[in-house]
Amino acid sequence: IPKEQLQMLQQEFYHQEMIVPFLFLLTGACLCSLPQAVQGIINQVLEKLEESQVPMTDYALKSSGAAVIPEYTSPSYRSSAYKIVLFSLLSLDYVRSPELILEKENHPGNCWPFHGSQGHVLIKLSVPIIPRAVTMDHVSGPPLLKNGVSSAPKDFAVYVSDFSEWGAEGYQEEQLLGLFVFLAPLNPTQTFQLKNEISGSVNYILLRVLSNWGHPDYTCVYRFRVHGDPASKEGKVAL
């Protein structure tokens, strides 16, 4: 990276680290209470910074057509601390969708929680690709949430799987692409090069979280991205 670009990136990090915590202090540590226009500005700044950090195309982006396959994804953690009241009669636990990990918006609390320290999610990519790398994100800035970084994923594995071969017995065909450690306390956005080559393009990627940074109740994934080379029109989807 040229020295000038590195300096600009450092400046953007500095402004992000200073402005966002200040806004949290003004609003009681909750972005949802910020005016919509201010939220929009923050999201634009974070997205611009995000693009500078990881310039590769994300084929697990919901807005581009990617989706979570719920039948083969761990259940979401149900928090009794947040409830939805319907017609003043029915109270339901608030449940956050796993598809949050396929979205660009990244602010404290906007993550997908699952029970305990181990869970998995099956992602249908926006287009068939030959996967080359993945990116894991935790919340940017200082640990503003009560549980800080303890709920972030730590050890995780990435697989390709033949979704058509999955059934009641579980995962019929899996190919490990790599085992990784997400050092969330050091950097909230990290890209990992996949270690094992595959012979063709894939439609589905399986993320398995194997541990977190110490939270006893749940793990929360903010965003997971998949990078690679799109399959040619003549190319055969191997899995």
Automatic annotation (TrEMBL):
The keyword Transmembrane helix applies. Coiled coil: none annotated. It is a single-pass type II membrane protein. Keywords: Coiled coil, Membrane, Transmembrane, Transmembrane helix. GO terms for molecular function: protein-membrane adaptor activity. Residues 65-231 form the SUN domain. GO terms for cellular component: meiotic nuclear membrane microtubule tethering complex; nuclear inner membrane. Its main location: nucleus. It is found in: Nucleus inner membrane. This is SUN domain-containing protein.
